[in-house]
């Protein structure tokens, strides 16, 4: 098991990859509803009621700065084109253009069939691949399969997506951004071919998206970009959800009987999304003066929204520090809220549960394997908001 780190994180951003940020979040919740952090130059929302208020202030608070809808480093590149069309990175008409179709398609997906397909795809991931890499490959390849890619193409789609998601992080260097743009171009081209050359396989998420959007070939660049976006949302966030669920099993021996059934695995994943989420924080940017929790924000101000802290707020979830797979009313904000709530929450949990089942069958079948995994330890990938474990 990893050694407990007693010191607090350096700041609320560093908390995302800290060994145990939750005591630190508790101290923040005891402070002002909105606290100014001079070093980060942001307002910090840590309590559930304030976090919810921020996420609901769609008119005044946006997901991107008004002057920079696309990160400067991506402007004019294929990665920038994809980023600029993503519904989760946009507000107003741009957000509404394709979101309803995506939402209806995801809501109509057969989750039992998706779970079975994910398990089948998992069998094709080489057993010798490092565990920390499998966390990404299992959900990404499953989603690519659901989107209509032939199984022979899944390893290449996996590699492209791993390259592409680098553009979503401000920590990426020039080489990573160049690779992300190359991957974005390839993925856009492949989706264009998938939708233009033949009718997508019946029952795929791709066919559902096309049906719900009443689209015909050639598809708009915006819709193609949001198909890439479905894959990118599956990559880091679901990898973290899968990895953190595996950590929960190493820490909580009492959970292991639950891991024998699909419903039990899903319960573990859903509680992990609350207890130790893969997306620890997000940001909102004021486009006009607004008052939040009694604090006046000026246009241009940024708010760091600590989703993981809100999940551990006792006013939001009773006994928040206990890992309880069965909860009367589990409340989670890590998949967004209100207009920006993630329509793929159920699918993400399903893919993570299938990935967890595959890992337990193929990677940790021996009775003492989870204990050994916990003893070897883990750390977290560098990130400003993601909590994705790397097993040592």
From TrEMBL:
Sequence intervals crossing the membrane = none
* PANTHER family tied to this protein: CYTOCHROME P450 YJIB-RELATED, P450, PUTATIVE (EUROFUNG)-RELATED
Q: By its UniProt entry, which Gene3D superfamilies does this protein fall under?
A: Cytochrome P450
Keyword terms of this UniProt record: Heme, Iron, Metal-binding, Monooxygenase, Oxidoreductase
Official protein name in the record: Cytochrome P450
Q: Which family does it belong to?
A: Belongs to the cytochrome P450 family.
InterPro entries listed in its UniProt record: Cyt_P450 (IPR001128), Cyt_P450_B (IPR002397), Cyt_P450_CS (IPR017972), Cyt_P450_sf (IPR036396)
List GO molecular-function terms, semicolon-separated: heme binding; iron ion binding; monooxygenase activity; oxidoreductase activity, acting on paired donors, with incorporation or reduction of molecular oxygen
Pfam families named among the record's database cross-references: p450
Q: Does the keyword Nuclease apply?
A: no
Native organism: Acidovorax cavernicola
4Fe-4S among keywords: no
Source taxonomy lineage? Bacteria, Pseudomonadati, Pseudomonadota, Betaproteobacteria, Burkholderiales
